[in-house]
Design brief:
Elements: H1 4-15, H2 20-27, H3 31-42, H4 61-69, H5 74-83, H6 90-103, E1 117-131, E2 134-145, E3 151-156, H7 161-175, E4 181-184, H8 203-212, E5 215-218, H9 228-242, H10 250-263, H11 277-285, E6 300-306, E7 312-315, E8 318-321, E9 330-336, E10 339-344, E11 347-353, E12 361-362, H12 376-390, H13 392-404, H14 409-418, H15 425-437, H16 443-452, H17 461-471
Parallel strand pairs: 1-4, 4-5, 8-12
Antiparallel strand pairs: 1-2, 2-3, 6-9, 7-8, 9-10, 10-11
Length: 472
């Protein structure tokens, strides 16, 4: 059975000229149910209101709410009411206060003017298909305008400060302007220290806010009501869009999310305002937003780094090479979304593509002195010689690894060579022979053969013939 609020919603949508199918889609109810309600409305039948059974303290409800907002205990409230001549027991007051606290968290509702405020947050949406069956952790970004409840949503795969800022830029473009304030949670992307009275903003986010002309307003810790609108927005998109849906890939998710925002999210009757967000936004809020800047914000980080003895600097968990002349000196960095530029005393000395992940190296061989450079051929010959010292089968293993493991070959070869610390060359060579026979070319397997002594076991006729052909 439909409640009074939903009954009223259907009535308003019908009055706006919406069809039964559109009302069903917007409210989430079956089309047959919508048809029954519309028939009642056409006959002039209104849903009867349920009248709650009155209680003695109901006439003092506003006063009790005020006491609770002052954090007074039920005992203190009982004493105050008794002093006013209210004839009621302490148990009744205690139960009445408990019921209020169960029904709602009491807080002062924050009303905002058109264009005054937007609230932002991330919400975890689980693992979604990225491409070719691969899944990635996915978050959804929400910016909600406080007055109209007009929403912008975007899916992301991380919560870095650059991603956070780019989502802001995309939202402002979708709105066609910038609100005066942006209420943010104490996200790592925007706030380094969760201190409401003296927040230390990420330098990049602070410069972005200044460039776009809005004031970042961080929430107090444990004060969720300050950003309750966007938290409701996150719950809404998770329950109404992500729940029960599967996506072919990231492009499919983007396309369907955009359509949902446009056709359902911003076209529904909002549960609090009882109005359609898009209509309020277009009529009252769009023109109150500040103009967008003429150019997009330059997404770059600047700073200084010391050049290590290996001709590299360390930036965001990755390593980038610098000409050896600058070892021990401090160089400047300018890190954008795609590039890292390195300079010394105002002169650019190196440029690298920005690395993804962690622990990665971007190395330009020309940054080393000539006597330190070694060609790939020389590098391979060095390891081939060392493997040959172990024996012919070890050398054959070297060539197989070189073919099968591409640019990562040296790690496997170094592992095999490290076995000399525990085993004789003859044992390692025989272990390589057995591994080749079974077509297993991994360091861990060769180590296990050395350890368990299976290199001593004879190979059967088929294995010998296969090994002979492979090593020929």
């Amino acid at each position: 059975m439909l409640g009074g609020e939903m009954y009223q919603t259907i009535k308003v949508l019908k009055a706006r000229g919406k069809s039964k199918s559109e009302i069903a889609r917007l409210t989430g109810h079956d089309r047959k149910t919508i048809r029954k309600v519309i028939k009642k409305l056409e006959k002039g039948i209104e849903l009867p209101e349920k009248k709650p059974h009155p209680r003695k303290l109901d006439s003092y409800q506003a006063e009790i709410h005020g006491f609770l907002e002052e954090n007074l205990s039920a005992l203190r409230i009982y004493q105050k009411l008794s002093s006013q001549g209210v004839n009621i027991s302490y148990a009744s007051v205690k139960n009445y206060c408990a019921n209020i606290k169960k029904r709602q968290n009491i807080f002062v509702r924050i009303h905002t003017k058109p264009g005054q405020e937007a609230q932002v947050d991330f919400g975890y949406a689980g693992l979604t298909n990225y491409k070719e069956g691969k899944k990635r952790k996915t978050w959804v970004f929400n910016m909600r305008l406080g007055y109209s409840r007009y929403d912008y949503y975007e899916k992301v795969y991380d919560q870095r400060v650059e991603t956070f800022i780019q989502c802001h830029i995309n939202a402002f473009k979708a709105f066609g302007g910038v609100p005066a304030e942006v209420v943010i949670d104490n996200l790592k992307a925007a706030i380094l220290e969760a201190n409401f009275y003296d927040p230390i903003y990420q330098e990049l986010y602070k410069r972005f806010a200044e460039d776009y002309g809005f004031m970042p307003v961080p929430c107090k810790v444990r004060d969720p009501n300050r950003k309750g609108k966007v938290e409701s927005g996150i719950k809404y998109v998770k329950n109404n869009f992500f729940a029960g849906r599967k996506f072919k890939d990231h492009q499919d998710l983007d396309k369907r999310l955009s359509k949902w925002v446009k056709e359902i999210c911003n076209e529904r009757i909002h549960g609090t305002t009882r109005k359609i967000p898009r209509e309020i936004f277009e009529a009252q809020e769009r023109t109150k937003l500040k103009r967008l800047p003429l150019e997009d914000f330059k997404m770059s980080k600047v700073g200084n780094r010391k050049v290590y003895h290996d001709c590299h600097i360390y930036v965001e968990y990755n390593y980038y090479s610098v000409p050896y002349e600058y070892i021990g000196k401090e160089v400047g960095i300018d890190l954008s979304q795609k590039l890292l530029k390195i300079s010394y005393q105002g002169q650019e000395i190196a440029i690298h593509p920005r690395l993804e992940g962690r622990g990665e190296f971007s190395t330009n061989d020309s940054h080393y002195p000539k006597y330190k450079r070694r060609s790939e051929t020389e590098y391979q010959e060095k390891y081939q010689t060392q493997m040959l010292k172990l024996g012919n089968y070890a050398q054959e293993m070297f060539f197989i690894i070189l073919t099968k493991h591409g640019s990562d070959w040296s790690r496997y070869v170094q592992g095999i060579l490290s076995l000399e610390k525990k085993y004789k060359a003859e044992i390692i060579n025989l272990a390589c022979k057995r591994a080749i026979a079974f077509k297993v070319y991994r360091y861990k397997v060769i180590e296990a053969i050395c350890k368990n002594g299976s290199y001593k076991q004879p190979l059967d006729l088929a294995e010998r013939e296969e090994l002979k052909n492979e090593c020929a």
